Amino acid sequence: MMRDSIPAEELLRKTRAIGQYYGFVPLEILVAKTRGSNRKNESYPETIANLALDPVAETVVSFLSKFQHAAIAPTSRQPLFVWHTNITPGRSVQKKAIVQFHALGTDRAIADAVVIRALLALARDLFHEEPVVRINSMGDKETRARYARELGVFFRKRANVLPEECVARAKHDTFGAAELVIARECAEDLPAPTEHLSDASRKRFEDLLEYLEMTETPYELARELLSRGNAWNDMCFELMVGGQRIAWGSRYGDLTRHFFPGAPFSATGAVFQIASEGGVVAKRAPTRFRFSFVHIGDEAKRLSIKLAEDFRRAHLSLVQDIGVESLTEQLHLAERRNSPYLLIMGRKEALEGSAVLRNRQTQEETIIPLAGLVERLKAVG
Fold first, then answer.
1. What would the DSSP string read from start to end of 17-28?
2. For an engineered disulfide with 293, which of 80, 222, 306, 320 has Cβ 3.0 to 4.6 Å away?
3. What residue spans define the domains of the chain?
4. Residue 39's pLDDT is what?
5. At what angle do helices 8-22 and 298-313 cross, to 10 degrees?
6. Which numeric CATH code is attached to 5-138+205-277?
């Protein structure tokens, strides 16, 4: 039976671990680095008030507001993979716990794949059963306009057989009407948005599905899974456990334009919500990691996603930045963490099924086969 609520301490502990192994940094760490700098006022742009946002979009907007307030923004050199929660150590636990994972500043499919994998890993840990990942694409503005026209034709042609409230809603809100038709279980002939994707959106969606398949991430195509265009764009997904939605995610690059009009960026985010319980969560000292895993190239990136679960199950003192593509930037981040060891994988190592372990003090390097990697690292660590 699915858990109705989760102790806040457990949720925070497991979220930290997911962030560590999948390369997501806590928002509080990024915010702490900007203290004393030229922060902006924490307020919503006026243009946000004109958008009809669903509850998940409102949560993402609140996150972007904090991001803007701290004067944080990703760059082409350094995308940001961030997790955030309303569970604050030292403060009373709120009745509803919210955990968010965001990939900011990269348009590549790996960003979507890592967000999905992080939520999937968290759900597995919390519920001890296999969640169902349902995924679809609503496409870009060009696609949505085309799809809206197709929906208009659908409702006009079937006005005499569809529920009256659906037909009435379609006159001013075709997407809302489509959601009603789906809820009333009379959407057998409803057009699928993926049939109307622009070339760019189709390529982006295909790249994501390929990434999920190559990293052995289970998913289902859900043609009836829709999202609203004023907040979300392209890929959207949900995680289901016991027939209930526990998380929703999507690309939301259009939302970033309201907070960063001069330099909007691609973004993917997901929000997990559940009732929480417990008292005040204790504060925890920062962790120094024994190993920093750096990798370059698609082959190594795909392997790093799969290896994250092996590292996590073994409780290795290891951290990585899966979404950061620049090897130089990954090495820079590892240097700041001051890990005693680097685990390095390039295209050559990925194809050969190995990794290089470098002792940062002596610069000694050892080639380790992936087949026994976890055991060797546990022995070193």
1. HHHHHHTPEEHH
2. 320
3. 5-138+205-277, 141-194, 291-380
4. 55
5. 150
6. 3.30.930.10
Encode 332-358: b = buried (16+ Cβ within 10 Å), e = exposed. ebbeeeebbbbbbbbeebbeeeebbbb
Q: What does the alpha-carbon distance between residue 317 and residue 193 come to, in Å, rounded to a whole number?
A: 44
At 254 the pLDDT is 87
Position 231 scores a pLDDT of 87
Q: What are phi and psi of 269, to 5 degrees?
A: -145, 160
Query: What is the tens place of the pLDDT at every residue in 256-271?
Result: 988 888 888 999 999 9
In which residue ranges of the chain is pLDDT below 70?
1, 34-43
- What confidence score (pLDDT) does residue 310 get? 93
What does the pLDDT read at residue 75? 80
pTM, 2 dp:
0.92
Q: Report CA dihedral (101, 105, 110, 112) to the nearest 10 degrees.
A: 40
Closest CA to 69 of 19, 26, 27, 115: 27
**DSSP annotation string for 263-316:** S---EEEEEEEEEEE-SPPPP-PPPPPSEEEEE-SHHHHHHHHHHHHHHHHTT-
Q: Determine the Cα–Cα distance for residues 306 and 353; give it in Å rounded to an integer.
A: 13
CATH code, residues 291-380? 3.40.50.800
Ramachandran quadrant class, 79 (left: phi over 0; alpha: psi -120 to 50; beta: rest): beta
Strand positions, DSSP E, the chain: 5-7, 25-26, 80-85, 96-104, 132-137, 220-221, 233-241, 244-251, 267-277, 291-295, 318-320, 341-345, 354-359, 365-369
SS3 351: helix
Spell out a b/e string for 279-305, using b for 16 or more CB atoms within 10 Å of the CB, else e.
Answer: eebeeeeeeebbbbbbbbbbbbbbbbb
Give the C-alpha separation, 24 to 312, whole Å: 14
pLDDT of residue 332: 87
CB atoms within 10 A of CB 132: 18
pLDDT at residue number 40: 57
Q: What pLDDT, on the 0 to 100 scale, is given for residue 111?
A: 93
Two tokens, residue 202: 């189709």
